[in-house]
Amino acid sequence: MEVADSLLDLVGNTPMVRLGRLRASAGLACDLVAKVELFNPGGSVKDRPAIAMIDAAERSGLLKPGGTIVEPTSGNTGVGLAIVAAQRGYRCIFVMSDKMSDEKVALLRAYGAEVVVCPTAVPPEHPDSYYSVADRLTRETPDAFRPDQYSNPHNPAEHERSTGPEIWRQTDGRLTHFVAGIGTGGTITGVARHLKACNPAVQVIGADPAGSVFSGGTGRPYLVEGVGEDFWPTTFDPTLLDRVVEVSDAESFAAARRVTREEGLLIGGSCGTAVHAALTVGADLGPEHLVVVLLPDSGRGYLSKIYNDEWMTRFGFLRSTGPTAGDVLDAKRAVAGSDLPDLVIVTKTQPARRAFSLMRDLGVSQVVVAVTDEVPLAAKEVSGTLSELALMDRAFRDPGILDRPAGEVMEPPMPMVGVGETVTDVVEALDRGPSVLVLDGGHPVGVLTRQDVLSFLVRKAGA
Questions:
Q1: Does residue 125 surpass a pLDDT of 90?
Q2: 6-35: per-residue pLDDT in tens?
Q3: Is the pLDDT score of 309 beyond 80?
Q4: Sorting pLDDT into bands at 50, 70 and 90, what band is 120?
Q5: CA of 228: how far to CAs of 91, 97, 246, 316, in Å?
Q6: CA 64 to mean position of chain CA atoms
């Protein structure tokens, strides 16, 4: 009988498919094929290293019968580990950042895992970061083992053992370029080791979210999940890469939705990151080239986000028909000219006095309080608001408040609207506060008040 003894026996040997419709619509001359990892039992490429890391831990005695697996994860590694745990009787505790979709949290809990959610907009060394929390839980939990996919050598080794050879065999050694996202770096490192051992001329291209360290960022927040990092994992060998392509959230999400609609292949946001990079690379290649792009997971874990038009519009990735928040913002800019910045920002650590000075000098009634004043700002970096009237009132009663850090005296953040949301949506948001923050591609780009909307409507009526 053709029956597997365990679900774990079904991991690997995933299929490859030609992205013919995408290739044609993008006008590529080269061949473009995808390694489709969603066919693993857990739905992602992370099933492979999950088994390898647990096998190694059992052999070495680091993980004992009835023990607990603790791991920080964007979801996919957690699913792979949860499947192994279910098969072998382990308890699981997974630590995730708060940008992960609700579906991913629910999925891990469906396997019986405990999930701890931590803030995204903190550095790795912060005690509340998901790395620090995972370290603490590992220390505090009896018989705990942390696979640590970011430093575990069995992560890239498994891809060198299985994923790389599969790609070489399935393409009959004809591939010229391999494209994959960089997260832990395990997949791209392991595959690159095998492919370059077979043919040193194979080009290996990493796809990286804008803001991640691999493409020159500092690890500032971005919205795409499961790819990029804010530190350099030891499982990643950058010397094996020939190029890194920086990809924005907007480009990642657009590519994912495009593949789903043109190929009927439902893929996740990090897959979109890799696809965009593959299209960028393929644009300069002739028909003699074969580009392989690794698609790490399915889009089923992102239905509430990148496949939800309301979410996409709220974060400024899609535009509604008719007058939008972006139109109001453009009208405001046209009147204000270039002298007034779109955003006035103070950091949480700067004194409130600086915010008051900026409002007075620039003639604005509110400023954004954020963890940084570097632009483009990410929505997750917004901490609160300081408004002129509220600050003046508090300073009248206590002048010393102006010398306290802005983070200590700030009000809640302004309501946020996407640049493509309707003017009606903006008006409804203004019912929750005197101003709203406008997002474009997940980045705050301006502030609108009731006066801005009224001026826009008056000019539009008189046009």
A1: no
A2: 999 999 999 999 999 999 999 999 999 999
A3: yes
A4: confident
A5: 28, 13, 10, 21
A6: 34
* Interval 199-208: pLDDT, tens: 999 999 999 9
Q: What is the pLDDT of residue 463?
A: 61
Q: Which of 46, 99, 305, 380 is catalytic?
A: 46
**Max Cα distance, the chain (Å):** 83
Number of Cβ atoms within 10 Å of the Cβ of 15: 12
Per-residue pLDDT reduced to its tens digit, 141-191: 999 999 999 999 999 999 999 999 999 999 999 999 999 999 999 999 999
Return d(Cα 52, Cα 153) in angstroms, integer: 10
Least confident of 182-196, 198-212, 283-297, 391-405: 391-405
Asked if residues 349 and 323 have their Cβ atoms less than 8 Å apart, the reply is: no
The contacts of residue 312 (CB under 8 Å, 6+ apart) are 253, 305, 306, 318, 418
Domains, the chain: 7-41+160-307 (3.40.50.1100), 47-145 (3.40.50.1100), 311-462 (3.10.580.10)
Question: Is 46 among the catalytic positions?
Answer: yes
- Type of residue found at 160: E
Q: pTM, whole model, 2 decimals? A: 0.93
Q: What percent of the chain has pLDDT over 90?
A: 84
Residue 57 banded pLDDT, cuts 50, 70, 90: very high
Pairing of strands 243-247, 203-209: parallel
